[in-house]
Every structure is written in C-alpha cells, then in structure tokens.
Amino acid sequence: MTFPQILIFLAAVFTGSTIQAVSGFGFGIFVMTIFPYILPSATCATLSAMLSLTSSITLSIRLRRLCNYRRILPPLLTYFVFSFVAVSLSASSPDKLLKRCLAVVLILLGIYFIWFSRRLRIKPTVGIGLAAGALSGVLGGFFSMGGPPIVLYLVNASEDNDHYIADIQTYFAITGLYTTTVRAANGLLTATVLTWWAIGVAAMLLGVVTGRALFHRLDPLMLKRIVYLYMAVSGVLMLF
Hints:
Elements: H1 3-23, H2 27-31, H3 41-62, H4 69-90, H5 95-115, H6 126-143, H7 147-157, H8 161-185, H9 191-214, H10 220-238
Helix pairs in contact: 1-3, 1-9, 3-6, 3-8, 3-9, 4-6, 4-8, 5-10, 6-7, 7-8
C-alpha cells in the first residue's frame, strides 16, 4: 500500500460513513465505487462489510430503544440463506468477473434510485420482507451492497425517520456479523483485510459522528441523489 492509496481510502471511508449516518444506508454503495481501484474485488467486499459493520453496531447501540425487532425478522431469515450462497460463490469467482458484475449492479441501482424509487410504493407485508431480505442477501454477499432492497421495505414499514434509522442499522449490524462470519469461514478474512480495516476504523467512527451531527441539517433527498448519480457514473467507468 502507498500513502496516496491510504489517503484515498480514508477519504472514501469517512465520506461513506457520513452518508450512511445521514441517510441510513449508502456506505457500501459509495466505497465500492472506489475500493476496486485499490484492492481486489473480493477483498473490497469483505473490507466494506467489516467497516460498515463497525458503523452499524455503533448506531444500533445508540438507537436500540427505537428498533422494532419483529419488523426486521422476516428479511433477516431470508438474508441468512441467500447471503451464505452468494459469499460462497464469490470466494471462487474470478476478480474480473466480479468487477464487471459490480459495475452493472451500480448502473442499474443508480438508474432505479434516480428515476423510479420515489414512484414505487410497496406494502410492508411479511412476504415483501422475505423477498427484500433475499435480494439484500444476494447483493450483500457478492458486493457488500445489500442496502437498497431493505431500504425500500423499511422506509415503507417504519413510522418515522428515527425508527427507520434504528431498524435499518440494527438489521445491518446483525447481517454484517453473520456475513463477516461466513466470509471468514470461506477464507476471505485475510491479514490484508484486517490491516485496512484497522486503518479505516477511526475514519469510519469520525464519519458516524459527523453524519449524526448533520442528520437534521442536510437534505437527505439531495444527498441521496448525488450519491446515486455518482454510483451510476462510476459503474459506467468501471466497465472500461
């Protein structure tokens, strides 16, 4: 690793954790547009998941009294199954293939969130929760980007923003612990990952504090739109 790489890495972690603290998700989406230029794709997903886990545990502990555990149970059940399969497959997939797949996912998610997310409303039923957890498990297992499906579910199920943040951060904390364990069992939790994680923890926690301080001052919708546009453009660039 070089000094410029470390600076870029720290800036990405800080920005991603600030975005997540403000909007409830987005860390994995943001950093996975940068990490592949520094590290192999499989390493990136594991590192992103571990850093995101640090953020989610911090926020879920602070907001634990607002979380509705019954609401997040259905997506958790299917997440466990589908993320296990995805992580197992990613451990043996070629790095170039994973990077191309990640680029396509970034483009599709960017297009969806920019043009369609506000038009789509779903009923927060148990069935929808199970489906959201399954898709979240696939995206989380392969790319550490399991946020979008569960966001769509919880934003329609939660009674207000504070409960939404508490629910989704608790969901991320639980799924992050599980996925990290599965990745470790598949040999993806390497010394390289742990070294980069140790370097990034301080930037992650600083981003959490900054994001919570800005939570009621920034326009989350505008922030999300900027992230979505950035995500789609990054996916296009990653294809070449």
